[in-house]
Amino acid sequence: MSLAAMLREALDLGRRGSPDLLAGDVVDPVLDPEQPITPAAVLVPVVERSEPTVILTLRTDTVRSHAGQIAFPGGRIDPGDRDAVAAALREAEEEIGLPRNCVDVIGTADRYRTVTGYEVTPVLGVVPPDLPLDPQPTEVAAIFEAPLRYLLDPTHHLVRTVEWRGRERSYYEIEYEGRRIWGATAAMIVNLSRRLALVS
After folding, report:
1. What are the two backbone dihedrals, phi and then psi, of residue 119, each rounded to the nearest 5 degrees?
2. How far is CA 194 from CA 24, 45, 89, in A?
3. Which of 83, 93, 98, 196 is deepest in the core (most CB within 10 A)?
4. pTM of the model
């Protein structure tokens, strides 16, 4: 069975269960009483290698939101986008030069709301190895791959606590080869792990 077929089956079967999922970052009703919700989408590009990997980006320090963080390629859903899948494919092409016709779309995963007001739909897709990617220099400082098995392993999902806006907040973090994956990206990986774990 191909990687795409295995992931498609796992996601399809996983949707029939009810795992304990992370819905989103805590929004403070006092500090953010009427925060608008912006629909967004990210592509989770799984590279078809003997040991499958996931493409991740390091955002530049100059972008408006989530500067300097590790993220999936993606962004807001524009009015011209047909749906979240179209938005994720467009953004990945714009941000890292990943041709949309090279992505075998598996399906969408569980939405996640960020503290900055984005409701993000992760789009899972399989891509061929060694594509000549081209990062958009104003948005992406670096592109790298991390093993899918490593990212989905719950033993690598570390809970951290920090004081933010005068309150103690907890979040997930995944450390990989000196890189720190945290916040919404880590949370979406945790959700995907829990969804797919139902069929493992």
Report:
1. -105, 105
2. 15, 18, 24
3. 98
4. 0.91
